[in-house]
Design brief:
This protein has two domains: about 1-110, no CATH class; about 135-225, no CATH class. Helices cover about 55% and strands about 10% of the residues. It is built from eleven helices and six strands. Strands 1, 2, 3, 4, 5 and 6 form a six-stranded mixed sheet that branches. A hairpin with a 2-residue loop joins β3 and β4. α5 (about 110-130) crosses α9 and α9 (about 185-195) packs across α10. The protein is globular. It starts with a helix and ends in an 8-residue tail after the last helix.
Length: about 230
């Protein structure tokens, strides 16, 4: 099993020039995040789950131009758990690194979950590294909507939006779930993950809801502005 894991990770590393780290726990977290008040913690992913998720990671990476990955991503950390401020995180990103967690299928961690998480965090790196159309995106939202600003408001908005799907009222306002209410970046993350993992669903929503259509168009413009080799199938 260990040999297969190493070979799968090395194949990804050779193709994209990135590091795939899967044997580190707390050491994966920068010291600043390990200290109070964040008190970051992490556990390495189990071998059984590494065997499941490494092929998923390779498949999802193939949806990106290789040169874009090389320019923007340095390290992928594969973890069993990740926590900050006493809250468990599915994943996060810092600079040119992303941190992804994955558990057992019986716990709800299926391949779709992991794929979605990867695109979510990858989109955050792009959000930081490129000129995102913030004003245009904000102009699509209802006039009364204001994203959360303080760390406390953001954390509360994220908590309120966990495991929450969309509904007619959210869709009509241009949001895919309550989680998207929290920050503009999180709103964009949801669109990015759906574009790469459930493009048909995003296309159907865009056909029905004008605000979702406008944000989908902005997302496509943003990604093709990064590279013309992006092919978003929605």
């Amino acid at each position: 099993m260990s040999g297969d894991i190493d070979e799968s990770a090395q194949a990804i590393e050779r193709k994209y020039g990135i590091a795939v780290e899967y044997e580190t726990g707390d050491a994966a977290i920068p010291e600043l995040w390990r200290n109070p008040p964040a008190n970051g913690t992490a556990e390495p992913m189990t071998k059984a789950n590494l065997c499941r998720y490494l092929p998923v990671l390779a498949h999802e990476l193939d949806k990106y131009p290789a040169d874009v990955i090389r320019q923007n991503l340095a390290t992928v950390y594969l973890l069993n758990s990740l926590g900050f401020f006493g809250v468990q995180y599915g994943g996060t990103s810092l600079d040119h690194s992303i941190y992804l967690t994955g558990g057992n299928t019986v716990e709800g961690y299926d391949d779709s979950y992991f794929a979605t998480l990867f695109h979510h965090e990858m989109s955050s790196i792009f959000f930081r590294n490129y000129d995102f159309p913030t004003e245009e995106w904000n102009s699509v939202n209802p006039g009364r909507h204001v994203y959360a600003k303080s760390d406390r408001q953001i954390l509360q908005a994220i908590t309120d939006g966990e495991d929450d799907g969309g509904d007619e009222s959210l869709y009509s306002e241009g949001f895919l779930s309550k989680y998207g209410y929290s920050t503009l970046e999180n709103d964009f993350n949801l669109y990015a993950e759906m574009a790469f993992t459930h493009p048909r669903q995003l296309r159907q929503l865009a056909e029905k809801y004008p605000r979702i259509r406008k944000k989908s168009e902005l997302l496509r413009k943003f990604y093709t502005g990064i590279s013309r080799d992006f092919h978003l199938d929605y």
